[in-house]
Every structure is written in C-alpha cells, then in structure tokens.
Amino acid sequence: MRITRSMTRSMVAVLALLLAASIAMAEEKRWVSSEGTALKAEASATSENVADLSVGTEVAVVESGGRWLKVRTSAGKEGWVYAGRVSETPPAAEVAGGDGGIFGDSMKSSQIKTAKADSARSIRGLSPGAAQYAKDRGTPEMYRKSLDVVLARKVSAKELKAFLKEGKIGEYAQVQGGGK
Amino acid sequence: MRLILSVALITLSISATSESAGLFDSLQKLTDPASKERQILSGSSQVLSSSKEIDYPTERTIGESLALEGLQRFGNPVKNEALQRYVNLVGNAVATNSKRATIPYQFAVLDSPVQNAFAVPGGVIFVSRALVSILEDEAELAAVLAHEVGHVSAKHALKSTQRAQFFEGVGTITAASVRGDKGKKFASAIGDMQAVLFDKGLDKDMEFEADLAAMETTYRTGYDPSAMIRVLEKLQKLEASSTNKKGSWFSTHPPLAERIARLQAQLQKYPDHSSLASVHDRFAKTAKVK
C-alpha cells in the first residue's frame, strides 16, 4: 500500500515537472495591435522591413530585447517588432474594426468598409444622416462647414512615421539616443 | 435584450432537465418546427439579431450630429492650421496604438475658454484652447487625446443612454431614417447623449477606464505615461482656484484626487516610464502659439 502511494506521488511529481517544463518551453504569444506595424530585420525602426503585419496577426516571441521583441510569424518569418505594437491578448473582433461583435463581418471586410466610409466622407464631408439632422435642427451653416473641415483632415501613415521620427518617439527613440 | 435571451435559454435548459428523457430528447425536439423548444430557440435567435451592435456608419452619424451640437456649445475650431494639424498628428499617433486602431479619428482644438475635451462616437475628438494652454509638453497632449480615444474605443457615450438602444437593430441610419417620427427619436437620443457628454458627465467608472487606457496607449506609443497624472494635477490646482467650474473637466469627471491616486498606483506597471518621450520643444513651438 505504502509503495503504491509513494509511486503515485512520484508519478504525480514527474507529471507536474513535465507540465511545468512544457509550459516553460512554450513560446509566448503576442498579437499585433497597432496599425502600420512592420517586422524589422533588426531591433531598430530604420532597419529593413521583413514584412508588414496587419492588426490581429499572431506572432511567437523568440527573444526579448527591452522595448523590442524578436518574433516569428506563423509563416516562419523572423524579425523584430516594437513591443508597443503588440499585446498579450488578441484584439477582439470589434476592436479590430468589426461592427457586429460575434455576428460581425471579418476584420478585413469591415476594414474595407471603414476605409470606404472614410474616403466617401472626404468627398462629401458630413454623413447624409448628420447632414439631414443639421437641416432639421436648423444648425447654422457656419458649424456645418467647420465640421466639414475637421472631417476632411487626414494623416497618412507616412506623415505619422515622419512625425514620430522627428519627435524621437517610441520605436524611433533608441536609435536616436533617447526620447527626451 | 440579453436578459430576455438568458431567460429563454434558462427556460430551455430547465425544460431539458425536468423531463426524465433528458437533454437528448430536448435536442431532438429542436428539429421539430412545431415544438415548444424550437419556438423558444427561434425566438432567442431573433433577440440575438436585434441586439446586434450599432454599425460603424450609424455610430459615425450619431457622432457627427453630436459634434455639430458640441461646436455650437463650445465654439468653432481655432483658426490655426499648424496647430490643428499638429493635434491630428499627436492624436493619430496614440489612436493607432489604442484598443480600436482601425477606425479613422479626427481631432480639433475649439476656441473655448473652458478647460475641456470630449469625444463623440465614431472618432471625432475635440479639445478646448483653454485646456491646451495649460499643458506643457506633447506627452500631456497625447494623454488628454488618448483619454478621449479610450472613450471612443469603449463606446462609452453610446452605453450612457438607454435611448441609444433605439439605434440597435435598426440597421444603418440614413438621411431618410432621421426624418419624421424616427427623426424625432433620433434627435431625442442625441439630446440625451448631449446632456451626458456636456453636462452630467460619463459614468465614474468610464472615466477611470479612459484614464487607464490613456496611460497604456501613451506608453505603447512611446510617450511618458505619467503625463496623464501631470495633466490631472494641473487641473487640480486650477480647480482649487476656479470659481466657474461649469462644463469643465472638473465638473464632468470624478474627483481629481481619486483619479490621480488610481493612476499613481497604475504607474508601477511602467517602471521605465521616465525614459520615454515628453517632447517639450515641438509642443512649445506649435501649441503655445496664440
């Protein structure tokens, strides 16, 4: 009886050890959570682009180097991403731009929809519903025009990168020697 | 709506367990269109589809309508294109690292003497000239804008009024659907949300949530997340000396001391925060222009 008990204990201990080891060996996962994220050849924003990663892409952490992580994509591509651009949990469908929760469209199609709505607005300004609301409420023309101007302002990904680089912010901080 | 669904599902499960035949028989009954179980299930699927969340174009229409009201109340945008562009760059820098990075965001500084900032559903965000004027660097501006982006991400304004449920399940709001009787309901819901955004303020927990989101988002972007605390401390000083608090961040938000305390506790999460960017000079050059 004693032998059986101790054997059982040993087996449990071995299993526990194996489980712990497998958890330790399992690579940590991260999910791309920022728009315009690129996989870089080195831990530097100015290094070569290995691939563009869309929001929601799952990557495995290979190595951590402060604010940069060496990761591998499911396609087997390895490179570095700025840690601020990935998160420890996958972005929810809605978060990724979907508009109907679990009943919503796929991330890709809703992104296209959003982009379409966006480009349409840049031509037409106020959405038709809001324009009708303004008409019914007698909103002075001055405010409608002001909002049109606000809605027409766009920031391209290229402008944003240049802005962050100039300010030595985020992924541009280390290369330029600090962000202050 | 979700409550009705839960009740329906509980009823279904009770009916399954109370019969001695058990779950298997109940499942079989589901295939019979005339069965009670099948009717309950089809009823619950209708509830599910009608509680579908408001779609993005509708959210945007609601937001733009509220933005029109906001402009009338707080004033038109400041006529300084360099400043407006700068605020859009800082705002978009944080928005791309927010929990809702895939919708377009627009930012504007309004010519208002009251220290305030607010976001309408869909991603239009306003900050007053008076609030910008008390800030000292780009990280502080980023914190204010990230707080507002946090409200948009979590759809706080939409969740703040029962009448917003009117929009649920109605499909996309078009010009036609804001006319007539529907138009009255639409205007009434906008009125409710206006009262929340401009007068009463959002729920306390929503403000705390947006504060924490601001810290996380600015940190992820590369700005010093303690900037959010610095902004609140500035407001606290102003609050102590201010007699007219109406419509400001003091009156529409929970007590500043409580917000600061919560953020200071959260700051432990970012031990390297002081090595991140604050960007004083660029801010001083662009945003301190009168």
Helix content of chain A: 40-55%
What does the main sheet of chain A amount to? 5 strands, antiparallel
The portion of residues forming beta strands of chain A comes to 15-25%
- The CATH architecture of the largest domain in chain A is Roll
| Strand count of chain A | 7
Shape of chain A: elongated
Number of helices of chain A: 6
Rg of chain B: 23 Å
Which CATH class of the largest domain in chain A is shown?
Mainly Beta
How many strand units of chain B? 3
Structure description:
The complex is a heterodimer of chains A (180) and B (290). Chain A is an alpha+beta fold and 180 residues long. Chain A has two domains: 2-87, SH3 type barrels, CATH 2.30.30.40; 125-176, no CATH class. Helix content of chain A is 43%, strand content 19%. Chain A has helices spanning 2-25, 107-124, 128-137, 141-152, 157-166, 173-176, and strands spanning 29-32, 37-40, 49-53, 58-65, 68-73, 78-82, 86-87. In chain A, strands 6-5-4-1-7 form a five-stranded antiparallel β-sheet, with no helix packed on it. Chain B is mainly α and 290 residues long. Chain B folds into two domains: 2-50, no CATH class; 56-287, no CATH class. Helices cover 60% and strands 5% of the residues of chain B. Chain B contains 13 helices and three strands, in the order H-H-H-H-H-E-E-E-H-H-H-H-H-H-H-H. A three-stranded mixed β-sheet of chain B has the order 1-3-2, with helices on both faces. In chain B, helix 4 crosses helix 9. Chain B is globular. The relative contact order of chain B is 0.12. The chains are: A alpha+beta (180), B mainly alpha (290). Chains A and B meet through helix 2, helix 3, helix 4 and helix 5 of A and helix 4, helix 5, strand 1, helix 9 and helix 10 of B.
